[in-house]
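User: Structure please.
Assistant: Input sequence and predicted structure:
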Amino acid sequence: MPRTLYLAAAVLALSACGTHDNGSNAQDLQSEGAVDKAGTVDDPGVAQAEAQPSDNTNIYVSQAAIGDLFEIQSSQLALKKAQSAEVKAFAKQMIADHTATTAQLKTLASLQEVGRALPTQVDAPHKAMLDQLNAVSGAAFDKAYLDQQARAHQEALLLHADYADKGTVSAVKSFAQTVTPKIQHHADMVKQLQASLAGGAR
């Protein structure tokens, strides 16, 4: 075969190889692009994270439920152990009011925006407070119970007021806004009872 034909054949072969390689590279780049897109835009994990409630909602709902549990359990002790009729009357109201808010929290917890079960037991700090109440009786119990109620309602007031202001789930935020003045009223009642008992002890 003449030399010019050999050269022409070689050029054609190289051109064919180059075209095939470029096609493969384009397919590879397209595949890589699809992977990148799946990893950043269509990643199910990202979509799931966006569907989850914010951390402050989870914390608020859990802490509010634990606060209710403590109020109910400590006030049940007060009905049995308190010496003052006024303290027992207050304890009875705390059980009724916090049982009602617990029922509301259960409804909120079932919402898709929240989707979490409420705690069924108090946490360690509140358990220690209940243990302290169990260890005293009579007038000492009344004082300890009211001291704990003052502390618990101040903590609850901060919790509810903060979510009422900064909450991200509208139904939960509305609940916090409704509950906050009730908690403030409870705190005021505790102060009045403490002053009354202190005056009667003189």
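Residues 50 and 191 are 44 Å apart (CA to CA).
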